[in-house]
Amino acid sequence: MPELSPGRRLDQPRSQARFRLNIDPDSFGRFTERIARFLGTGKYLFWQTLIVVVWIVLNITAVSLQWDPYPFILLNLAFSTQAAYAAPLILLAQNRQDDRDRVSLEEDRNRAAQTKADTEYLARELAALRLAIGEVATRDYLRSELDRLREDLDVKPRKSRTPTGS
């Protein structure tokens, strides 16, 4: 009986694809984000404008080099191809940013909930301390009681002490 290969399962059909292209989604996503960021820069616009101007000037003036005569169909095809690739790349970058924002928002919510719980705990502890301090004699309370006792002692007549003969 033939041995099964280590990763093969009997409850799943064999894959028909002999050639698989394994692309790491994170690496591809980072690559597309870099392209999308570059497409939105002034540097890209400058170079694209320069290429288009050179393309048009060469096709109008250089009669022997006219690879794309006046309606510039090849240039339009290049722009269409660029737009066909740029739009999905930009959308992919936006989706990745949305995912990051969603994770960040969830972390912020968790942090806010923890901060609220900590604040409520500290408020309860502070209230408990205030109640406990209310039952303890404070410095002001002791001072007022001592002042009242001193006044009471000053008001009452003092008994004169006479030295007893020994």
Describe the structure.
The chain is mostly helical and 166 residues long. The protein has a domain of 94 residues. It has four helices and no strands. Helix 1 crosses helix 3. The termini are far apart. Keywords: Membrane, Transmembrane, Transmembrane helix. This is Integral membrane protein. It comes from Amycolatopsis vancoresmycina DSM 44592. Pfam families: DUF1003 (PF06210).
Number of strands: 0
The CA-CA distance between the termini, in Å, is: 126 Å
> How would you state the average pLDDT, rounded?
84
Q: Mind telling me the C-alpha Rg?
A: 43 Å
Q: Which percent bin holds the helix content? A: 55-70%
Low-confidence spans: none
Helix segment count? 4
Largest sheet: number of strands, sense, barrel closure:
none
- Structural class computed from helices and strand pairing: mainly alpha
Strand content: under 5%
Query: What is the 3D shape?
Result: elongated
> Helix and strand succession?
HHHH
Specify the oligomeric state: single chain
Protein name: Integral membrane protein
Pfam families: DUF1003 (PF06210)
Keywords: Membrane, Transmembrane, Transmembrane helix
Organism: Amycolatopsis vancoresmycina DSM 44592
